[in-house]
Design goal:
Layout (H helix, E strand, L loop, with lengths): L1 H22 L8 E4 L5 E6 L5 E6 L3 E6 L4 E6 L12 E4 L5 E5 L3 E6 L5 E6 L5 E6 L6 E5 L4 E5 L4 E5 L6 E6 L5 E6 L3 E6 L5 E6 L4 E6 L5 E6 L4 E5 L5 E4 L11 E4 L5 E5 L4 E6 L5 E6 L13 E6 L4 E6 L3 E6 L3
Antiparallel strand pairs: 1-28, 2-3, 3-4, 4-5, 6-7, 7-8, 8-9, 10-11, 11-12, 12-13, 14-15, 15-16, 16-17, 18-19, 19-20, 20-21, 22-23, 23-24, 24-25, 26-27, 27-28
Length: 331
């Protein structure tokens, strides 16, 4: 009888543990880990091919890293003397020609071949919310808190202001050729628009503020997500919905998104350390795990800043913990 009671309690406990395990992403360790900032990073961006990473940190300023050699290629200095000047947004051109860096009120272009600065700008009366850069720095995109998205062609000095948003812009992206942009804001709308004319190509309405947008560098797909429970993958050629990400949580927030080269998968990162791989066509989550946390924070956590597909089997992540990490897509 006593044995039966112990067995019953053990079975209930085991069932409960299995239930909790099923509710959490499986604990996985990265294949490889590189430390890029000892005290954590303000921002980071990986190149789309996973060969480079640019990291903004309190101790080093802005470092461009070669991932394979794990070596610093350049150290850049954009004034970071107070909280308003911290570099909090970074982007690497799809062809690895240039890096765009931005604080709340300033932005700079850096040449990845020479290491030289190719421009420094300041803005007034508003603040920078998000940025994107085209190949060869032919154009840059600046999403602003006043609802305006600024498209600049540095060589010609041409400026275009996209005025479609009625409230603060939260996220922007740009195709590598600079011709098509996407932007999302607090007005519950994501727009895809032509940077030459400012004309809207598609308008995607959401039930709440749009928190993240992204474009597939090959021009096939677009991603939009809001603050409630709508994360969508769109056909960039037709504007039709391909799939919605399927999850049981009340909401999921995204801080990094990348499309795979073969067009089969979507990778997402979150402020909760969580990284997920999704079937692009069905929206089904295929795998998930958590990046290394910052040990000096309580509770221990990390924001996933950037994701890149290194190949069809591995992805790279950069996070606020100061680590770049290499992960298998499936285990």
């Amino acid at each position: 009888m006593e044995f039966c009671k112990r067995f019953y309690r053990h079975s209930i406990c085991l069932t409960f543990i299995l239930f909790l395990s099923a509710c959490q992403p499986i604990s996985k360790e990265p294949i490889q880990r590189w430390q890029h900032s000892v005290e954590g990073a303000y921002a980071a961006a990986l190149s789309n091919d996973g060969k480079y990473s640019v990291v903004s940190s309190i101790e080093n300023g802005i470092n461009l890293w070669g991932i394979e050699e794990n070596s610093i290629i350049y150290n850049w200095s954009q004034q970071q003397d107070d909280a308003d000047n911290l570099v909090l947004a970074l982007d690497i051109a799809n062809n690895n020609s240039h890096v765009l860096t931005a604080s709340r009120t300033e932005f700079s272009i850096w040449n990845m071949e020479t290491g030289e600065s190719e421009g420094f700008w300041q803005i007034s009366d508003t603040t920078v919310r998000d940025i994107a850069i085209a190949n060869n720095a032919s154009s840059i995109l600046i999403g602003q808190s006043n609802g305006v998205v600024l498209h600049v062609s540095p060589n010609s000095g041409r400026r275009l202001e996209f005025l479609g948003h009625q409230e603060k812009v939260n996220s922007v992206d740009l195709l590598p050729n600079g011709r098509i942009a996407i932007s999302g804001g607090n007005d519950f709308v994501a727009y895809i628009w032509d940077t030459q004319t400012g004309q809207v190509v598609y308008r995607f309405n959401h039930p709440s503020r749009v928190t993240y947008v992204a474009l597939d560098p090959k021009g096939r797909f677009a991603f939009t997500a809001d603050s409630k429970k709508s994360a969508n993958i769109w056909d960039l050629k037709t504007g039709e919905l391909i799939s919605q990400l399927q999850y049981n949580n009340r909401q999921e927030v995204y801080s990094a998104v990348q499309f795979s080269d073969d067009g089969l998968f979507l990778a997402t990162g979150a402020p909760s350390r969580k990284v997920s791989i999704w079937d692009l066509r069905t929206g089904k989550r295929l795998n998930s795990w958590r990046v290394t946390a910052r040990e000096d924070t309580r509770p221990a956590g990390a924001v996933v800043y950037s994701i890149a597909f290194r190949d069809n089997s591995h992805i790279l992540t950069e996070s606020s913990s100061g680590y770049a990490e290499l992960w298998p897509i499936s285990q």
